[in-house]
Amino acid sequence: MRFQDIYGHEKVKNVLQTAVSTGQARHAYLFEGARGVGRLSTALAFAAALVCEQPEGAEPCGKCKSCMMSAAQTHPDIRVITNQLYDEGKKSVDVSVDTIRQMKREIYVKPYMAERKIYIVPRADTMTIAAQNSLLKVLEEPPLYCTIILIAENANAFLPTILSRVVTLRFQPLPFSLVEQALSETCAAHPEWEIPSETIPVKARMSGGSIGAAVELLQDKEADSLRDETLRQVNLLLQSGQRSIYDFAAFLKQNKTDIKFILNILQDWFHDVLLLKHDGRTKEIINADKTAELEQFCSRITRQSAAAFPDITAAYAGYINQNANYPTAVQCMAMEYWGEIHDRNYRNPL
Question: Pick from 35, 115, 266, 350: CA 20 to 30 A from residue 27's CA?
Answer without folding.
Answer: 35
